[in-house]
Amino acid sequence: MVCSQGNLASLCDSCCKIMETAKAEWAPKVHHISFVFPNGDTFEGECTQSTTEVIEKNGKGVNNTPDGVTYTGFWRNGKMNGFGKLTHPSGAVYEGEFIDNMFHGIGTYTFPSGAKYIGGFHKNKIMGKGEYVDASNLHWKGSFYNKAAPELKLKLKM
């Protein structure tokens, strides 16, 4: 297909400009809000409003629950997505990557005892290469598969 100007490059340029304009017209506007939900959760951060008037957390924000759970990080389509930090009143903390409200990717989970795991997560499960530092500060390295770590090795400091 050839543009009326006589070349394919002109047609592609015209199509790209039309698509960019359409995308800009349909792109949801980002708002910064402070909101209290009916369940008592509070959110302060970025959100977008769709063409159907639905408001969703999108961008960076902080969500607090009445029972003391706090998430600080990135949101997409109303869910924790991207890098963030989730703290629990028990002292447990996860800092790392999230996908659809789940620990997924690389992160650090600190247990209430002070022990921690640094490494891979897959759909909220410890998965892949990582290191577990126990409450006595002993470092265990290896591959983790949910609750199993068959080839775990103790890393001694001398």
Automatic annotation (TrEMBL):
<keyword id="KW-0677">Repeat</keyword>
<dbReference type="Pfam" id="PF02493">
    <property type="entry name" value="MORN"/>
</dbReference>
<dbReference type="InterPro" id="IPR052849">
    <property type="entry name" value="MORN_repeat_protein"/>
</dbReference>
<dbReference type="InterPro" id="IPR003409">
    <property type="entry name" value="MORN"/>
</dbReference>
<protein>
    <recommendedName>
        <fullName>MORN repeat-containing protein 2</fullName>
    </recommendedName>
</protein>
